[in-house]
Amino acid sequence: xxxxxxxxxxxxxxxxxxxxxxxxxxxxxxxxxxxxxxxxxxxxxxxxxxxxxxxxxxxxxxxxxxxxxxxxxxxxxxxxxxxxxxxxxxxxxxxxxxxxxxxxxxxxxxxxxxxxxxxxxxxxxxxxxxxxxxxxxxxxxxxxxxxxxxxxxxxxxxxxxxxxxxxxxxxxxxxxxxxxxxxxxxxxxxxxxxxxxxxxxxxxxxxxxxxxxxxxxxxxxxxxxxxxxxxxxxxxxxxxxxxxxxxxxxxxxxx
Length: 255
Prior knowledge:
Blueprint: E1 7-11, H1 16-27, E2 32-37, H2 40-52, E3 56-61, H3 67-77, E4 82-85, H4 101-129, E5 132-137, H5 150-165, H6 169-173, E6 175-182, H7 200-208, H8 214-226, E7 235-241, E8 244-250
Parallel strand pairs: 1-2, 1-4, 2-3, 4-5, 5-6, 6-7
Antiparallel strand pairs: 7-8
């Protein structure tokens, strides 16, 4: 898809990957970018950066753990060309199995249920307007055998499967759904893994792995949006190794 002149929604855009993607969409010529997050102060700063990059913007505080509110918002605002389902949360402490049922419901609703609801509504709107592109932020943990944060890994694996199951929408609705799989990324979400900061296990991960910049991931999102030769359900994993960004491309029928 040629991004120039298109409209977009980016969830989780108060900082990190969402902010980088929103700014990059504006720089690529997007006409308008709707910014969605629970962090209103962060949204205001992202809006300033997006507008400086040349796009109109609107700020929307939305709690994606509230699935009904998410559905209502997307019914009102979801008629766009591009949707980046980027918002996501980690479990924090305590971890499974000590986490309570309400916390489990919260992470599942933010990471999976609201993403599916947003995609469903956006696909219907995109089909009516002639097509569109949806990029779901997954994680490279979906390619592995496990992860310390069991609920985060489980929800991201679910998003990966959902993205692959949406492959047929390209043919049926002219809506291409793709997956962005970031490796370790230096974003504020890392500071929510522990009690008031980074957990000990996250500190160990950071000590033994090179973190991507949010812009590294945003560049991959833009590549997924712009390349209409890609099949529905295609995905790309992005990691950094020895200072170099590495891409691993995959398809709906591969793990």
